[in-house]
Design a protein that fits this description.
Layout: H1 13-18, E1 37-39, H2 40-48, H3 54-61, E2 72-74, H4 75-78
Antiparallel strand pairs: 1-2
Length: 80
């Protein structure tokens, strides 16, 4: 099936989150906040900007042991 120019390409939540600058550490789009992952604050900002869904955010938060804006969401925690 051919895609038209109006079709949107689905983006994984982690890619959508990394498409914005982190408000805490100011890392540029495309770069992780740390070698382990991205700050929860970056995930929250992506949700506020409607880049990810509530379910995407829920799947990340439910895996965290401690929740602060400085938490780093690791590869394991963001795997759905």
């Amino acid at each position: 099936m051919a895609m038209t120019t109006n079709a949107t390409i689905p983006v994984r939540p982690a890619e959508a989150v990394r498409a914005i600058r982190c408000r805490l550490c100011r890392h540029r789009p495309g770069q992780p906040c740390t070698p382990r992952g991205d700050h929860l604050a970056r995930w929250l900002a992506a949700y506020e900007q409607r880049r990810i869904t509530r379910d995407d955010l829920k799947h990340v938060i439910v895996r965290l042991v401690v929740v602060t804006k400085w938490c780093v969401v690791t590869e394991t925690e963001r795997a759905a």
